[in-house]
Amino acid sequence: MSIFKVYPLFDVTPVSAKDVYVYDDKGIEYLDLYGGHAVISIGHSHPTYVAAITEQIQTLGFYSNAIQNPLQAKLANKLEALSACKGYHLFMCSSGAEANENALKLASFHNQKHRILAFKNSFHGRTSAAVAATDNTKIVAPLNAQQGVDFVELGNLNAVEDILKQNETCAVIVECIQGVGGLDQSTTEFCQGLEKLCKQYNTVLIADEVQSGFGRTGDFFAFEKHNFKPDIISIAKGMGNGFPVGGILIHPSIQASYGLLGTTFGGNHLACAATLSVLDVLEKENLMQNAKEMSNYFVGKAEKIPKLKAVKGRGLMLGLEFDFPVATLRKNLLYHQHIFTGSSKNPNLIRILPPLTIQKKHIDLLFEALKLEL
Ligand code: PLP
């Protein structure tokens, strides 16, 4: 059987990795400034993480959600302590798409409305509804016959209100920093405006923190900077440092009932152990502070390079926007300089999503490499 080809692949075969480095089958060392789409938060194969997963699999790797799992409660408490989500509830699943799917479903159960409002250029995973948000010319398979997605320009509160006042929208879903879309950010005024409109029109406000959460921006969640309270927050990626785990944090105003949501794998013992160890390392190694410091260092260096139009993003969710398409530059960084970077919907932008353990010397390597390739 062959692989169903849905991705264009670079010709590199990683076989091992350590912290910010990846090694291929030919023994070549690569600097990983992409972390597999922002997944590697505490560095590849961190010893605390490896030990936690190893110990868990040797005792109890998995049992179903119909029994007590004290690790989930421990994780919920830890998330509450580290984030601005006091009093929220945790529901666990296994990926970002599943987190958003659950968030949208829950919103619809909560207020009995059926449409979704998303922002142009957003990306919420390959969900039946949210996939449409990646490209408003292609609305693919809405959740059901009545359900659909409305798209609005990021920042346009009047357009949001025009839609919400029709009283059909169950949820507004927003990335405070657009990842795949190209690092455009919402302003505080916009976020607070969304919160106000959602309250006024009985609509659930979902912050998609799948990519921006878990310390990547230097705050635990990107929305915290804007001083508002989403009703649901979706999480995944950096949460498991490679272990497939996701979840939603749910404001106490949204009531749970048996059977409302469900999953086979979500929140299993191994997933909890992986996530708990990620949080442990984030705290012990002060990685959110490191994200802020390394971000400042990066931006300072970036401002000196030629042909750069803008440095976008926040913390270690960054983009270098040039005045030309970057596909060849990215290939040269990979094959000549052995540096992994990412792309986005903006063809002129290189995405930088390194492990939060990155140091100045690694950032220096990127800028030396750019000097050679530009
Ligand atoms: N939401 C955002 C903001 C994302 O960036 C992504 C993936 O890139 C997703 C959701 C989907 O996550 P997953 O690929 O784990 O389904």
TrEMBL record:
InterPro entries: Aminotrans_3, Aminotrans_3_PPA_site, Class-III_PLP-dep_AT, PyrdxlP-dep_Trfase, PyrdxlP-dep_Trfase_major, PyrdxlP-dep_Trfase_small. Pfam families: Aminotran_3 (PF00202). One of its GO terms (molecular function) is transaminase activity. Its cofactor is pyridoxal 5'-phosphate. It comes from the Bacteria. Keywords: Aminotransferase, Pyridoxal phosphate, Transferase. Belongs to the class-III pyridoxal-phosphate-dependent aminotransferase family. This is Acetylornithine aminotransferase. It comes from Psychroflexus torquis (strain ATCC 700755 / CIP 106069 / ACAM 623).
